[in-house]
Amino acid sequence: xxxxxxxxxxxxxxxxxxxxxxxxxxxxxxxxxxxxxxxxxxxxxxxxxxxxxxxxxxxxxxxxxxxxxxxxxxxxxxxxxxxxxxxxxxxxxxxxxxxxxxxxxxxxxxxxxxxxxxxxxxxxxxxxxxxxxxxxxxxxxxxxxxxxxxxxxxxxxxxxxxxxxxxxxxxxxxxxxxxxxxxxxxxxxxxxxxxxxxxxxxxxxxxxxxxxxxxxxxxxxxxxxxxxxxxxxxxxxxxxxxxxxxxxxxxxxxxxxxxxxxxxxxxxxxxxxxxxxxxxxxxxxxxxxxxxxxxxxxxxxxxxxxxxxxxxxxxxxxxxxxxxxxxxxxxxxxxxxxxxxxxxxxxxxxxxxxxxxxxxxxxxxxxxxxxxxxxxxxxxxxxxxxxxxxxxxxxxxxxxxxxxxxxxxxxxxxxxxxxxxxxxxxxxxxxxxxxxxxxxxxxxxxxxxxxxx
Length: 453
Known about the structure:
The protein has 453 residues and is an all-alpha fold. It has helices at residues 2-9, 25-36, 41-50, 55-84, 88-96, 98-127, 146-164, 167-195, 201-206, 223-232, 244-247, 259-282, 285-292, 301-309, 311-339, 345-360, 364-367, 369-394, 408-428, 436-452.
């Protein structure tokens, strides 16, 4: 029954993707460019400025961190994905049992919903501009108006329906919107440079200069903060193996290189362009007054883009939010579908979209995006080490299904590595992204040692 449902849905949730359904690298290029040149970039770029980062630390840190992310996708995620062509959830089920994966899938799906919710928040700030809606502030956690609630619910409904129509629809939407979004970021960056009166590279460099004191409630970022944060911003997707669900459709592991389109167009050019928009905003008298009184100003993307490039800016922010939320909700739907295989992918994705929309009502997920992204990658990434170590050091391409429904060894490796290193972060005040790789390695090594006993 389950196998028939998987085949009829066309998403192959519980079987390898057949050769006839494989897709060329162009499908992944558009999807990654669209997903990572996205609405959240309009938040992340400005948030870097709130940490008081210097020019050298930001520009070089992003260059290195994004390269490490691309290499992780290419040589870990894509490599494993094309060998087995299974979703993350079904592959984990084969390794550690259905009951354990249900716990992991629940955590995975919920965290992805919260992430998608922050993207719905981003799009809503653009839709709200023509309605003169009060924008969420950096310190806001709750909905601040009835208009905000209505707009978030409307945006979330549209995004959820697109995501629920499956991978092909998600990929087509991304391919269609990606060029418009990229053009919008370029245009906004150029306008911001003009408004900042930048006439040379030295002027550009001096926008950040040697950095500044962080805004109230933020920590000071150095080059190491930028490198490790940008590397593991998508840690759940590459070293955490979530994108097995995407690259299982690839013809070869070479498709992993297409993630560079997302990293260097989105996580480099777009972050810098958005930071430039925020630099213009910070020069306004009202903002300077807020800073002098010890308050943190808003980082709402809609007004920032509108002030730079008008109506086109609103369109870009809305589309950017869609292209990121769509595949994120799609991934969350697959996670929930693995828990409830008798339900169609369409309906579990609608459920995921509903949860994401409710999360989008609360601005805290977007306003604290640097912290949240670091946390969700830290929690989910270690389980990816189980797949990597199983593939490269234990079973190789001969994936052997376990007879257990709950592998205590895998659960122990995941929980011990996550809890120990999270305790180190909280108790000793260590930046969480510094500990993502140690936690990932610890989980993989613990799994390997216990498996070999």
